[in-house]
Amino acid sequence: MSVANVLQVTRLATAIAVLGCLWATSASAATLQPIGRFEGPVFVTSDPGNPERLFVVERPGRIAEVNEGTTRTFADLTSQITTGEEGGLLSIALAPDFDSSGRLFVDYTGNETPWPAIHVAEMRASGNSAPLSTLRNLLTIEHPEDTDHYAGQLQFGPEGMLFVSTGDGGISNDEFHNAQNLEKPLGKLLRIDPNPSGSSPYTIPAGNPFASIPADFAPIWSYGLRNPFRFSFDRLTHAIYIADVGQDREEEVDSAPAPGLGIGANYGWNCREGTIEGPATDEGCAGSEASDFVEPIFTYAHQIPTSPCAIIGGYVSRDAGLASLYGRYVYGDHCTGEIRSFDPANPRGTDRFEGLQVEELDSFGEDSCGRLYAVSGKGVVSRVEGPTPTDCSTPTTARAASFVGIRAHGRRIRRHHRALLTAWVSPCNGRKGEPVKLFEGRRHVATRYLDRACTVRFRPRIRHRTTFRAYVGEDESYVAAISRKLKIKIDHRRKARRPGRAG
Question: Which of 213, 313, 350, 483 could make an S-S bridge to 343, C-beta 3.0–4.6 Å?
Fold first, then answer.
């Protein structure tokens, strides 16, 4: 080997050693600081307006409030709840305007026999007092035949709508064929507006992809999930991350960027398990390919009865005090207890162990300042902290995300005829009169203004097969958004002759 080559190898070895030191440092920079011990904790969140006011969800049915070093019972729902194998009080979501409205939402398994149903319900608090004992039920989802795979996450999306995760109903291989069935609510990510609409306790938001199909379950946002116990939104980019617990071979993380957030996405179960062929017991799986589904951005091997065994989804860290984790997706595994992270831009190439372990890791949480928490099934809830204390004294407010949808009244249009296109914007609050631009390909072809229902109509002339997208700009409250592409095809069929006319 030449001297030059020796020097080159030496420099490379030195660089690798330096990178190894940096890696080890970054992976050990975070620590776990306990905030308290609880009975069966399974989730933690905070008051949207006060990150120091934490709420810890206990699986048996209580919500504990931790504030200024004191802990008290904020709500007790134990009389409403059956825990079973994987049931109980599974998560809560406080309304963005919680400090003024007092509204919070709970996800739990009820006390029906023999098979507890999934319930999503609303409670109200008055000031700092405990919520009323009565619940306003929004959703009751039957869960027959088994007592696991309830999923159980509630989260307000960046556009202000309430997202709900449901498992596939339990038993192996999704043998009841729920996850791929758009008529059933199980194995899905649901999206609702929790405000009543007529006799319904909730409203179907504009943009829900299957709301216009009578047989389909209108709240469905995306589907093909096995047991998405935890999902989250990146508080900076608004992207969604769904950790779906695997069956025999792979654990997975699915993701979709804003503003689309995976609208109508099919994540593949049970045709697929992670990146490989699943048990494929559904008729629709036959002949399907990986390209027919949204592939996960990250997977790892599932090795029951050893370890790891079940992914616990977390959050993209936006805690300025955790420099080594900032911008990385933090997750773990229930059996190994390892807290790990990866860069969403390169998940498979950046996955690493953070030097932290939690016995029986059951969940992560995030407060309104962006600080992360780890929840142990052994009772301890801890804050993930860095060497630099995070200053949460100055609250920050971010503009909410928007969703834009567009549809055609008929996807095939005769050449030189006009198409009727309807676009809508969600959320609607405060949007009346805002301009919506229509693009054909990359060309701006029209502008219309939102009506009272936040919809607009366009009538472009169709000359050839083409695509359209609708765009709404940013304002003081909302970020800009653009719809998915709407494909329009030319109808080449000849017009039928009228009866009785001469040929």
Answer: 350
